[in-house]
Design brief:
Blueprint (H helix, E strand, L loop, with lengths): L1 H15 L15 H7 L5 H14 L1 H14 L4 H13 L4 H18 L15 H11 L4 H22 L5 H23 L11 H9 L11
Length: 222
């Protein structure tokens, strides 16, 4: 029975984080498009360095902490609302705020196909908070759900780099393969984190997100 439940949870998680799930992730690059334009990302090595920085000490680390807190707090409506408000406030630019909030809203709307009371208390929430809370509500283990979430976000950024012409598809796969151990380790660390562990130091990435707002020609909304 446990094996069947675990398999069902895995399939559900794969559905939620599939590129086909209607959250519009393909439309956003989180400032990566600006980094490509500036020459900071120009090949597989520089893309890998950029993603490792985001995962270790950038917005993806903060998202992981917020995801874990939302996953733990799904039954506490007041606490969950506080986490959602904090996540919205932590956005470093207008585009970053729009990206995470619109994806969170789209995720919650699509997740209503799996009814649960938690959806009633999350009218608006940043993307990691929305996914974390819903995963917790459906009994999906936090560390596994967080690893899958981080992999999905990293995959979208790799896809953005491919569409920007910085790397090819083979290099993109190689980058994702190289990130596996880091994502697994980060999920384990972040799943045991608290909000006191929030913090980032990727100033160049934050500036890229801000500057993207005025990039003359662009493919992405962020």
């Amino acid at each position: 029975m446990t094996a069947m439940a675990d398999t069902a949870a895995l399939v559900r998680l794969m559905t939620w984080l599939s590129p086909a799930f209607p959250v519009g992730a393909f439309a956003y690059s989180g400032g990566l498009e600006q980094a490509v334009s500036d020459g900071d990302i120009r090949d597989a090595a520089t893309l890998n360095d950029w993603l490792c920085s985001l995962l270790g000490r950038g917005n993806l680390w903060n998202d992981a902490v917020l995801f874990a807190e939302a996953h733990r707090s799904f039954q506490d409506g007041e606490r969950l609302a506080e986490v959602a408000a904090l996540a919205a406030a932590l956005s470093g630019s207008a585009e970053r705020h729009r990206e995470t909030m619109l994806q969170g809203e789209a995720f919650l709307a699509a997740a209503s196909s799996w009814p649960h009371p938690v959806l009633g208390g999350l009218v608006a929430a940043a993307y990691p908070v929305a996914v974390g809370a819903v995963a917790g509500a459906h009994g999906i283990l936090g560390e596994a759900a967080l690893a899958a979430y981080l992999h999905a976000v990293a995959s979208n950024l790799v896809s953005a780099a491919i569409r920007c012409g910085a790397i090819g598809q083979r290099d993109g796969v190689a980058v994702l393969a190289g990130l596996e151990a880091r994502i697994v380790a980060l999920a384990g660390i972040a799943s045991a984190s608290t909000l006191a562990d929030l913090g980032s130091s990727t100033i160049r990435a934050d500036i890229a997100s801000l500057r993207h707002e005025t990039l003359p020609t662009r493919l992405f909304r962020s």
